[in-house]
Amino acid sequence: MTLAPGRRPHFDHLGLLVSDRDAVLARARDRGWSVRTDERRPFVMTPWGFRVEVHDADSPAVQDLGSADEARIETVALHVRNPDVVRESLEVVFGCIPALELVEGAGPWVGAVELGGRAAPDGMEVETADLLAV
Questions:
Q1: Less crowded by CB within 10 Å, the N or C end of the chain?
Q2: Please, where are the H alpha helices in 31-82?
Q3: ∠17-4-108 over CA atoms, to 5°?
């Protein structure tokens, strides 16, 4: 998940690990969504104003993250208009995204994330506003 601070902080994109990257990109294109690839990874541009960075298990970015046992995001509360429509479309393209909680609201905006792993053994909820204030 990438948050972009600045004059107007905003939610920029989610990164997803998928089992078949080429199939995901094909489904996105079939829905008319733009797919952009740079030297490291492809991005799927959703119609809701945020991007999804797509990785397979061999991706260098995934290798750079380290162990999910140490630290991981358990849930992301993403505020969007029409969460049922967004959820249905995202599932068609990416499959089930269990850590993504869609919340009715103006957006896209990430209200909070819940962290887990050894770094947060009892779970820890972090508000996005607190992350951007640091």
A1: C
A2: 60-65
A3: 70
Q: Which amino acid is at 27?
A: R
- Compute how many other C-beta atoms are within 10 angstroms of the C-beta atom of residue 107: 20
Contact, 114 vs 125, CB < 8 A?
Answer: yes
Write the pLDDT tens digit of every residue in 22-53.
Answer: 999 999 999 999 999 887 789 999 999 899 99
- Amino acid identity at 96: C
Q: What is the C-alpha to C-alpha distance for residues 92 and 101, in angstroms, rounded to an integer? A: 16
Q: Within 10 Å of residue 104's Cβ, how many Cβ atoms?
A: 11
- The reported pTM is 0.83
Q: Closest Cα partner for 18 from 86, 93, 76, 110?
A: 93
Query: Could you tell me the two tokens for 59?
Result: 């991706």
Q: Is the bond leading into 108 cis (omega within 30 degrees of zero)?
A: yes
Q: CA 96, CA 90: separation in Å to the nearest integer?
A: 8
Which amino acid does the sequence have at 88? Answer: E
- Both tokens assigned to 42: 């492809």
